[in-house]
Amino acid sequence: ATPTALLVGTGRGAQLGVLIKGPQVLESTRRVDTVVLDKTGTVTTGTMSLAEVLPVGDVTADDLLTTAAAVEHGSEHPVARAIVTAATDRGLPREPVRHFVNHGGKGVQGTVGGREVTIGRPELLDEHSIAQPQAVTAARTAAESTGRTAVLVAWDGTARGVLVLADAVKPTSAEAITELRALGLTPILLTGDNIATARTVADQVGIENVIAEVLPAGKLDVVKQLQDEGKVVAMVGDGVNDAAALAQADLGLAMGTGTDVAIEAGDITLVRGDLRTVATAIRLSRRTLGTIR
Ligand code: ADP
Ligand code: MG
User: Fold this and answer.
1) Domain extents in the chain
2) N or C, which end of the chain is more exposed by having fewer CB within 10 Å?
3) Which CATH architecture has domain 3-45+170-292?
4) Mainly resides where (predicted)?
């Protein structure tokens, strides 16, 4: 491959909103056959909003939200931002938190007033032997069946309610998936979120293969396993939890709207966070290398 043609390719990429770390990246781009896509912030906008506050028993909605927001102040996750924003918008008091712990991909814990609070996925509550009353589980599964993300809020040994978060699919995502298919690539949706929510998003954009409820460390293993099966894998992601998988993939594409850690781990940055530029990058490399050979 002549270095000049490759440099022209990377220059053209920059014009198209695709920042390529070096000319050699175009080589691996050309061979890709599988595209693994993170859900939150990649296929969806990642700007979650609080859709419902569902307290159970004698807890009030304001109490549930105030307590949850106190702990979520310590987290930068889209779920946490939505909860904090909603509490602020409702004029709820900001309570201090002590002993904050972030359980990546599962939730958070902290002490608010006299309460030991846990917020997150059902597994996190199980791990700490926190009871999940039937009413809480029913509210959670109902929310998840509509494609929303539900997190449990618990204190002092029992789940006290559910916070339901809505995240919209980006307007360009469905078209982006159609373009990837047209290039002969297989898209796979990969997420730490629950399977019902993941499927709903996948259906909206036309993805058949879904791998859900994967912990941050597990994303790396999914990429490795696909590579062991002989696939040449592109990974597209935006979060801290995607960084290891982006580095492991044959081609890592980071959303320019995402975290610095993801951008550093990737080979290509999609400047505008528009998923259609994944296809642009692959077309560009095929064309560039096509002219060389
Ligand atoms: P994704 O792969 O879609 O980016 P993550 O792996 O970041 O998702 O998170 C997976 C799940 O863990 C979330 O859907 C949520 O249920 C839970 N979770 C993560 N962080 C938090 C948090 N700060 N508060 C509550 N729940 C959280
Ligand atoms: Mg993400």
Assistant:
1) 3-45+170-292, 49-166
2) C
3) 3-Layer(aba) Sandwich (3.40)
4) membrane
